[in-house]
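Suppose a colleague, Dr. K., hands you the sequence of a protein chain of 99 amino acids and asks what its three-dimensional shape might be. Before reaching for any lab equipment, you can write down a predicted structure in token form. Begin with the sequence itself:
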Amino acid sequence: MKATVFHEHGAPEVLKYEDFPDPEVGPNAVTNVNLLFWKQLEILGSTMGSRSELRDVLKLVWNGKLQPIVDRVLPLSKAQEAHKILEKGEQFGKLVLNP
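The predicted structure, expressed as tokens, is then:
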């Protein structure tokens, strides 16, 4: 695969068009920026902390020191209603769908 890459910050002259490994899923994933541009796609993401922070939070949950706030529990058949509640921001805490 060919890709436009840069190995340093700078003016457009630092951009190089060169061979690049095929994309792989994972922390160093790459994508076709032209595809994003022409299809007007968006990339959304968030980070929730490091793995060690996740382990710390899980310990709190396992020890009963941290409990999620559940706004309401709905049957799975009401998933569409639950989605509308989330879209409107009408919940405080988690919405749980019960199968």
